[in-house]
Specification:
This protein is of the alpha+beta class. It has helices at residues 48-57, 64-81, 126-129; strands spanning 2-3, 7-17, 22-30, 33-40, 85-96, 101-108, 111-116, 119-120.
Amino acid sequence: MATAEAAKGQGRVCVFSMFGPVFGYASAFVDGRTVAYVGPVTPGVHWRKLWSMADRCCRERDTDVDKAMWIVSQANRSFICGSDVVVKLPNEDWEMEAGGWQVDLGTWCGQNTLVTGALTVPALTVEQTAVKRTFYPQYAG
């Protein structure tokens, strides 16, 4: 894993809940590669929460790339299937702070790279970013 640089964009954003907290998923074409940006939008939830969820849901022997693929799969599942979607925004501003993690995926779910970090989507309301009810809070840790 490499430390990610800051990024910002405008486009489709899928906002979904996973084990309670709410996350945002945006993608962009950067330097010939498709990059998935996934991060929490619930106030007070650190971006490493994604990785602790992946640790709990993946096998012990799985690598960081396998865990990154799991994170992208969850975001993609929400976007395509509508699973636990809070809102889909067709054309919104978003921003990822520097300091998160970047993982090369090869190609997985149409993405070449995953960047996780602190994600901001100004258009979201307090209600949309609030922790949601879940049957599986143990996976959120």
